[in-house]
């Protein structure tokens, strides 16, 4: 707590999630510090409201990551896959040419072939030889449509699968580094906004948590070979990759589809997109009420500004101290140091206020 002009105010709330579980933006408004007594009052008001409505898992940041197991009775699961030209290591080069979605509850499909760029007659070679090169003749034979039309049809189809209050959760393999940001970027190109109630769940992270692969190959093909002793049929076609993912997830959950782990809404960046942030670090951030990369950046930037004003602390030291405070009791020092290094490298050219996806203009 800091004393300014005789009034006690908090440096950053919530620094202790056990004491407060209130959205920082709600309390601090436009960066202004609010009197401590007012924060106490708001805390008790929100606590009363939460208890009045018997919320089993109070939602403090609905716009950020949630735990899927807290919403089991409300989620509607959709397995999906995107096929795209370009290299996923440079998301700006990626353009979708096929999408397939499978509804777990209805067993219905949505599949569409998309023209990634009508101006292109010859498409670039894929980054790996296993992926077939896209041909203009194929798009013509499949009556490919543009992404804006495909997305409109897809959104309409998804809405027919939902009841009032359902939360659609889109599941794919490595979605937080590939499918989700690629879909967001494709929508950005066409001035489309993804519905904010759409959440995404990564089958890759779930698989790593529940099964051991002796070769360390947790790719869709690697897991399929391990579990079923055969390769994926027509690999790298969207529908067949979805079928493979469905088989894998059904096997891992014993057909219960009782999933655990984080689900992120559209336009919120997974904490595990930061290198060296694994499942344990993500859980620690979650427990500290930090639910996305954007959330983490706000926390770090707030600490940078306050620590410099109060103590003249340099930025790197402030970042290190903030991450140590969040992670030190459960994460090795070298892991924390690596996370700090990655964040500092990102920050050399990109301000904290932008997501990884948005800065890829």
Briefly characterize the structure.
The protein is α+β, with helices and mostly antiparallel strands and 361 residues long. It contains 12 helices and 9 strands. It is 39% helix and 13% strand.
Q: What does the model show?
A:
With 361 residues, the protein is of the alpha+beta class. The chain has three domains: 1-60, no CATH class; 66-268, Nucleotidyltransferase, domain 5; 277-361, no CATH class. It has helices spanning 24-28, 36-52, 136-141, 147-160, 179-189, 203-210, 220-228, 238-252, 279-287, 293-311, 315-327, 333-347, and strands spanning 2-4, 7-9, 66-67, 75-85, 95-103, 109-113, 167-172, 199-202, 262-265. Helix 7 crosses helix 8 (238-252) and helix 11 (315-327) crosses helix 12 (333-347). The radius of gyration is 22 Å and the shape is globular. Residues 1-59 and 353-361 have low confidence and may be disordered.
Distance between the termini: 40 Å
CATH class call of the largest domain? Alpha Beta
CATH architecture of the largest domain: 2-Layer Sandwich
Sheet with the most strands?
A: 7 strands, mixed
Number of individual domains? 3
Strand residues, percent: 5-15%
Unreliable stretches (pLDDT < 50, length at least 5) are 1-59, 353-361
Please provide the ordered H/E string of secondary-structure elements: EEHHEEEEHHEHEHHHEHHHH
Query: Helix segment count?
Result: 12
Strand order of the largest sheet: 3-9-8-7-4-5-6
**Count of extended strands:** 9
Query: What is the average of the pLDDT values?
Result: 82
